[in-house]
Amino acid sequence: MNILLANDDGIQAIGLRSLYFALKxxxxxxxxxxxxxxxxxxGHAVTLxxxxxxxxxxxxxxxxxxxxxxxxxxxxxxxxxxxxxxPDLVLSGINAGANVGVxxxxxxxxxxxxEGALMEIPSMAVSMDNFNPEDLxxxxxxxxxxxxxxxxxxxxxxxxxxxxxxxxxxxxxxxxIVCPHTRASYDDxxxxxxxxxxxxxxxxxxxxPPERISADRDRALLTRGHVTLTPxxxxxxxxxxxxxxKSTF
Length: 249
Fold this sequence. Notes:
Layout: E1 2-6, H1 14-25, E2 29-35, E3 54-59, E4 62-67, H2 71-82, E5 89-96, H3 103-106, H4 108-118, E6 123-128, H5 137-146, E7 160-165, E8 174-178, E9 187-194, E10 200-207, H6 218-223, E11 226-232, H7 239-248
Parallel strand pairs: 1-2, 1-5, 2-4, 5-6, 6-7, 8-11
Antiparallel strand pairs: 3-4, 7-11, 9-10
């Protein structure tokens, strides 16, 4: 396959580099266009108020283009300008930290894949349930081996696949389960601190309360050690409310 590879952790991130080499080893043609700096949780942001610059990376067998912008900027610029031909697949990751539940709205990783899907290119986001992974080579090889098993041409238009790995060595992970995403939201906690001049600042943390997590959805399955695969479709229309409002007005 001819693959456009992006992410939100930055072009030097371990997840992206691991995936790049695993894909190349599997015989794929890989074009990497990724942010120069970390862009976690920027969602589907697009740069409009300043020019976008590109830096070329060529080191230790890796070749890619770093974009001073968001993950979506990378995919837009790659597809419209930087690549010579339209890719067969847009692949985003491997992200440090799972993308489950409401994360799919915040995530720059998922948004990069979504941008590919919006342009009707098969797309997948890949994440690991660990914010500080040290070795993702096993997960990268798993992903490369999974690609030819996916029925890309049979998936609905503008479908995004969301693959998540548990916080385990790949040989210890349980089998892949295709499942819905978690619907529960985070309980946000802002830790209040003071800078050296005594002024307050705030640091976001939080978690999804376990009692809200459905056992058959991605968050619970990841915690139990499964690899999860969730098809996403970004049609935000609430059909039930649509019917109610139509009958009202």
